[in-house]
Design a protein that fits this description.
Order of helices and strands: EEHEHEHEEHEHEEEEHEHEHEEEEHEHEE
CATH topology of the largest domain: Rossmann fold
Distance between the termini: 37 Å
Radius of gyration: 22 Å
Number of domains: 2
Largest sheet: 7 strands, mixed
Shape: globular
Helix content: 25-40%
Structural class: alpha/beta
Length: 378
């Protein structure tokens, strides 16, 4: 069983991952969280009422431990925000002790401390650093925390470029902090995000916010999926699950113009990208867009078709737990004759996982790298 009690200078807190899973094996924080909390404990004085901004807190460990300072917390993840609320409640801390912001609308205040947990996507870090310029003063202390393996040279270069000179901490438990001094003469370029490109073999222009996988071009897995999407009037209610920029649902709607599309993702930037791309491409809007926890909130036996390219990581943690949750929920949400279409790398073995929930699992098409699988309960 993973440790659930976070013991740091700020106190002792119960911190759980979200969504909860049976036989959970993963911890809700890492050594970089602990290191950062230890470091700022010596710098923050609640009597001085310092203003604190936290960026990219995974499951709320930083927000909960620093709740006495009433921090603002920015995240692109619905899951992160839900976890933060649940962990605040678990520790009997008022929800309004923390101000939650999604990645699209940032707080307007100046901050004494900006604490950044290094994100998986460098483009997301770049976008945030550019957009956080109005939150900086020359005295703002900017600290990036991460496991050493996640602090690439590009992270350091971005901090120097957009904030100022940096210096490292020593490494502790394979974690490190980067301290950045705000430079008076820094020159920040125009934000390049969202990034737009013409979608090959179509009339569409696709625009992606920074935290989209393969934000500069169409990735090869999605390209393969687009080539084999179904066309049939029986698909009336369709979900693009984990929709990303929404291109899969967009092309599906082109093939099936009478279908009602539902775009779902836990990333605020993903759903915003999908919504913008769909509305730009389709004059008659017949779609809904939802930031949420997979298919939570969908009625049982309500969908004809679910399209899914499951993520195999959550933050910097790699694993199949998200895919399994998507498959299990899909089985409940599909109509008795409904279909789940899944694309994935061949080595991920999704056909084995799908057999835990569906009576019929068949490979529709494959190539050297990817496989498209249809799962039904017929």
């Amino acid at each position: 069983m993973p440790e659930t009690t976070l013991q740091v200078t700020q106190g002792c807190f119960q911190i759980l991952r979200f969504p909860s899973a049976k036989n959970e094996k993963l911890q809700a924080w890492d050594a970089a969280d602990e290191y950062l909390l230890q470091d700022v404990a010596e710098k923050l004085d609640v009597n001085d009422q310092p203003s604190v901004l936290i960026l990219n807190d995974s499951f709320g460990a930083l927000a909960v431990a620093l709740s006495a300072y009433k921090p603002s917390v920015v995240s692109d993840s619905f899951i992160s925000q839900a976890a933060t609320r649940k962990n605040l409640a678990l520790n009997h801390i008022a929800i309004d002790s923390v101000s939650l912001f999604d990645s699209l609308v940032l707080p307007q205040d100046k901050f004494d401390f900006i604490l950044i947990k290094a994100p998986k996507t460098l483009a997301f870090l770049e976008d945030m650093l550019i957009r956080l310029q109005d939150n900086l003063t020359l005295n703002t202390q900017v600290i990036v925390a991460g496991m050493v393996k996640n602090l690439s040279a590009s992270v350091w270069q971005m901090m120097v470029r957009y904030i100022g000179a940096t210096r490292p901490s020593k490494a502790v438990k394979k974690a490190r902090l980067i301290y950045a001094q705000v430079a008076k003469d820094r020159i920040v370029p125009v934000n390049p995000y969202p990034v737009c490109y013409p979608l090959e073999n179509s009339r569409y222009q696709i625009c992606n916010h920074a935290n989209i996988f393969s934000h500069k071009s169409l990735d090869i897995g999605t390209r393969f999926f687009l080539e084999h999407l179904p066309q049939d009037d029986k698909y009336q209610q369709v979900v693009d699950l984990g929709c990303g920029n929404g291109v899969v649902g967009l092309i599906l709607s082109e093939k099936n113009p009478n279908a009602q599309l539902h775009f779902v993702d836990e990333s605020f930037m993903a759903v915003a990208s999908a919504k913008a791309n769909f509305k730009q491409a389709v004059t008659t809007i017949n779609a809904s867009f939802q930031v949420g926890d997979a298919l939570t909130g969908f009625d049982d036996k309500s969908m004809d078709l679910i399209l899914c390219n499951p993520p195999f990581h959550q933050q910097n943690t790699i694993g199949g737990h998200i895919a399994l949750r998507m498959f299990e929920q899909s089985q409940k949400v599909l109509k008795p004759d409904g279909e789940l279409w899944v694309i994935g790398n061949r080595h991920l073995g999704y056909h084995v996982s799908l057999k835990k929930f569906f009576s019929k699992v068949e490979v529709l098409v494959s190539n050297a790298k990817f496989v498209i699988i249809k799962a039904t309960n017929l």
